[in-house]
Structure formats: structure tokens, C-alpha cells
UniProtKB/TrEMBL annotation, chain A:
Pfam families: 4HBT
Taxonomy, superkingdom: Bacteria
Protein name: Thioesterase domain-containing protein
Organism per entry: Candidatus Defluviicoccus seviourii
Domain Thioesterase: 57-128
Cell membrane listed as a keyword: no
From TrEMBL, chain B:
Protein name (Swiss-Prot/TrEMBL): Thioesterase domain-containing protein
Gene Ontology, cellular component aspect: cytosol
Keyword Hydrolase: yes
Keywords associated with the record: Hydrolase
Highest taxon of source: Bacteria
Pfam families per the UniProt record, alphabetical: 4HBT
Cross-referenced NCBIfam families: unchar_dom_1
Segments forming domain Thioesterase: 73-146
Keyword Aminoacyl-tRNA synthetase applies: no
Molecular function in Gene Ontology: 1,4-dihydroxy-2-naphthoyl-CoA thioesterase activity
InterPro entries on file: HotDog_dom_sf, PAAI_dom, Thioestr_dom
């Protein structure tokens, strides 16, 4: 899979990673690149609704977008040699996530040899009005190496 | 009597009104109906198997659609986040008498062990503290054995009751998100 990811990176098509991931197709996770780097997208789908009265997106799916954006950011914007493995994720829900596409961009706060700390913010209309923000830790070495 | 698997009277523990047949109380019925009405939960196949004031359990059957790592077939962390967020929110609704709305303020998930491909994932949660507007909840995701957890969650939820809404019609839950 890393080989495929490396090929996607070389071809400048990191967003194509999503085509390998069934869950991305299930909830509508996509990505594109702008002048500031990779942006993950959660397409609006009726099946992502968490509150039918407010027609708001399920907080768990917003969490999935943030986690996914963080991993894609590490794969696209850093030279990690493994698929980063999530250690933990802490999400702050800031606004109701309406029935529309949601975007998320990650930022590496610190990348060590073994662990990366990534911040992610998600928004709908404008990044200045985030709907959710998260920080997450990822393990950058394979499990065998981590425990030995 | 509202008891969890350990036989603890959760209502009494939290100073909540004692409900004689809590699994059939109005707040449980309301919480169950709210869960059944969540399109995303239906879409990914969540089943609410147990619910009482202060505690509940949901099962997420394994499906290849939930795979996040195609090399191993392991379920995407996002599905586990949605499962734990839902479980925690439903338990809040089941715990608060007259609860009309619940929104997640924050949720932290520790991924302790990868889920085993092919196995259903269960999540249970308990609401361990309630204030006038905020509920504090912890949850765990696992396959069969709670002692071998896949993930732990701790979350804070804001809620509004019908009484509070009548007093202050525009109860502001805008800080959170529906769970």
C-alpha cells in the first residue's frame, strides 16, 4: 500500500489514496490540493446526518474527517515511511455541522522520530468559522519496532 | 431497578430519581427513539442492545464497507469514533429526565488495540456526572471482552431539558454537535 501511496505522491495525486479505503467511499471522504497544501473533504450525504431535526452531520463522522485529514496530511506533506497509526484523537465540537460539504486541513505541530502531533480544523463556509478542531498523535514506526 | 453489569444502582449513585422499571421509562423510550432516528447510525448498521439511565451498549456489526486499512481489513477509526460518540450521547439522553437535546462538546478517543477484522464491535458508556447543563461520560469499545478494549473514550456533552427550554426558549446548544 505504501508503494501505491508513494506512486500517488509522485504523480501529485495524494487524494487518490481515498480510492483504496472502503470507509472513505462509505461516508464520502475526498481530498484536493490548493496552494496551502492538502484539504480533506467530507461530502454531504443524507446518510451522514446525526440529527434529523437540525439536519446536522453526525459528530462521529466529523471526527472521522478530522482523523482522516490528519493521516492524509502526514502522508502528503511529510516524508513518513509507514502509514501513520493513530494513538489518540481529541475533538472539540465548536459549531453545528450543517447539511453541506465540510473541509479540513492538518498541520504538523511536532514530528519526532516515533510520534507526530497533528492539529486539524474543519470548516464549512470559511476556515475562520471552524465547526470542529482536533489534535491527534500518530505512531510513525511499525508496531514491532515500537515494542522492542 | 437501574443497574449496570456490576449490579450498581446507577440512579442512586448519581442522586437521580429512582425509576422502578427504568428500561421502560419515558426517557429511555425517548433515547431509544432518538437513536433509531439517526440516519448515520442506521446506515452503518449500529444496534442499540441495552439502555438504562446512566449506562448503555451498542453493537456495530463488522462490514467490509467500514474498512480503513485495506492491507489488514481493520475498521476505520472514524467508525469507532462515530460508535463511541453515539453511545455516549444516547446514554446522556437516557440519564437526564426530560432531555430534549444533546450535543457533543468534546470527545477524546484513545486507540488501544486495532479492531480484529471480521468481528463485531461493541461500545458501552456510562454517564458519571451530571450538572445543570453538562454531562460527563466515559465509554469503551471492545469485541467480546471489556478487559481487552479497542478504544476508550471520554466526552463532555451539553444538554437541554424541556423545562429549561420552556424557561429559556432558545436554549443555546450551538457550541456542540449532535451526536
Amino acid at each position: 500500500m505504501l508503494k501505491t501511496i508513494a506512486e500517488f505522491k509522485r504523480a501529485g495525486r495524494v487524494e487518490a489514496i481515498n480510492t483504496l479505503i472502503p470507509y472513505a467511499g462509505l461516508v464520502g471522504l475526498e481530498a484536493f490540493t490548493d496552494e496551502d497544501g492538502l484539504v480533506a473533504v467530507l461530502r454531504f450525504r443524507e446518510t451522514n446526518i446525526g440529527n434529523p431535526v437540525l439536519r446536522a452531520v453526525h459528530g462521529g463522522v466529523v471526527g472521522a474527517l478530522l482523523e482522516h485529514a490528519a493521516i492524509l496530511h502526514l502522508l502528503a506533506e511529510t516524508d513518513v515511511q509507514v502509514v501513520p497509526k493513530i494513538i489518540n484523537l481529541s475533538v472539540d465540537y465548536l459549531r453545528s455541522c450543517r447539511a453541506a460539504d465540510t473541509f479540513a486541513r492538518g498541520r504538523v505541530i511536532r514530528q519526532g522520530r516515533r510520534v507526530a502531533n497533528v492539529r486539524v480544523e474543519a470548516w464549512q463556509d470559511t476556515p475562520e468559522r471552524p465547526v470542529a478542531a482536533a489534535h491527534a498523535h500518530f505512531l510513525l514506526i511499525d508496531e514491532g519496532a515500537a515494542t522492542s | 431497578m437501574a443497574q449496570n453489569a456490576l449490579g450498581i444502582d446507577l440512579c442512586r449513585m448519581r442522586g437521580l430519581p429512582h425509576v422502578s422499571d427504568s428500561t421502560h421509562s419515558p426517557q429511555i423510550a425517548r433515547a431509544r427513539a432518538a437513536f433509531e432516528g439517526i440516519p448515520h447510525c442506521q446506515h452503518i448498521g449500529m444496534q442499540l442492545t441495552e439502555l438504562m439511565p446512566g449506562w448503555g451498549m451498542i453493537t456495530l456489526p463488522y462490514s467490509p464497507r467500514l474498512i480503513g486499512d485495506p492491507r489488514s481489513g481493520v475498521v476505520h477509526g472514524g467508525a469507532i469514533t462515530a460508535l463511541l460518540d453515539t453511545m455516549c450521547g444516547v446514554v446522556v439522553m437516557a440519564t437526564i429526565p426530560d432531555c430534549q437535546e444533546v450535543a457533543t462538546l468534546d470527545l477524546r478517543i484513545d486507540y488501544l488495540h486495532p479492531a480484529t477484522p471480521g468481528l463485531d464491535i461493541r461500545a458501552s458508556a456510562e454517564c458519571f456526572k451530571v450538572t445543570r447543563a453538562i454531562a460527563f461520560v466515559r465509554g469503551v469499545a471492545f469485541h467480546e471482552d471489556k478487559a481487552a478494549p479497542i478504544a476508550h473514550a471520554i466526552g463532555t456533552f451539553v444538554f437541554a431539558t424541556a423545562t429549561a427550554q420552556a424557561r429559556q426558549p432558545a436554549a443555546d446548544l450551538s457550541g456542540g454537535q449532535p451526536c
